[in-house]
Amino acid sequence: MSWKLIWFVRIVAAAFALYVIHKVKNNRLSEKESMYWLAGTLAILFLAIRPGLVDGMADYLGVAYQPALLFFLGILFILVILYRQASHISQLKESNKELAQVVAILDEEVRRLQGVYKTAAPFCGQAAPLCGEGAPSCGEAAPSCGEAAPLCGEAAPSCGEGAPSCGEGAPSRGGLK
């Protein structure tokens, strides 16, 4: 290898290591995943510092063409990263499935509770029963004049102040449903 290529590989490896550290610092890459990338970068940097190491490893392993050993190590590194990613995606799929089930259960519970409350007390904008339509008699729990009525912001007159009497069965306010 020429010295120009060795220095180029060193600079690229150092720049990539700084890029990975920057991504971890900005929370764009997890610390666990960054360790694999930093280990790969350090291996490339180490091989760039010691170019004779590749020749020695190739001779020891019986590889006739030294660049083939580098390609094999690179492919092995990529396979390890891909396996980790596939494992992580599988875990995320399972978590997503569990969360979707919990959300569906909670949504059903909210709908059930809304149905219970709709029959028990009207919500804002819905028709509220007046005296004679299932509301308590005027002497029990009817709102007095000036108190908030079941409809938003309206003041409810008590039975003696302009409202129909309890026995008349007055219609709902404004025809709201």
Tell me the layout of helices and strands:
Blueprint lengths: L2 H23 L5 H19 L2 H10 L4 H55 L57
Protein name: DUF2304 domain-containing protein
Pfam families: DUF2304 (PF10066)
Keywords: Membrane, Transmembrane, Transmembrane helix
Descriptive account of the structure:
- The structure is a single chain.
- This protein has 177 residues and is mostly helical.
- The chain has a domain at 3-94.
- Helices cover 60% and strands 0% of the residues.
- The chain has helices at 3-25, 31-49, 52-61, 66-120.
- The protein starts with a helix and ends in a 57-residue tail after the last helix.
- The chain crosses the membrane at residues 6-22, 34-53, 65-83.
- Keywords: Membrane, Transmembrane, Transmembrane helix.
- Pfam families: DUF2304.
Approximately how much helix is present in the residues? Answer: 55-70%
Give the overall form.
elongated
The succession of helices and strands, N to C, reads HHHH
Task: Figure out the total of helices.
Answer: 4
N/C terminus separation: 84 Å
What is the C-alpha radius of gyration, as a whole number of Å?
37 Å
Sheet/helix structural class: mainly alpha
Average pLDDT over all residues: 76
Protein name: DUF2304 domain-containing protein
Keywords: Membrane, Transmembrane, Transmembrane helix
Pfam families: DUF2304
Region (Disordered): 156-177
List keywords for this structure.
membrane, transmembrane, single chain, elongated, DUF2304, mainly alpha, disordered C terminus, DUF2304 domain-containing protein, transmembrane helix, 177 residues
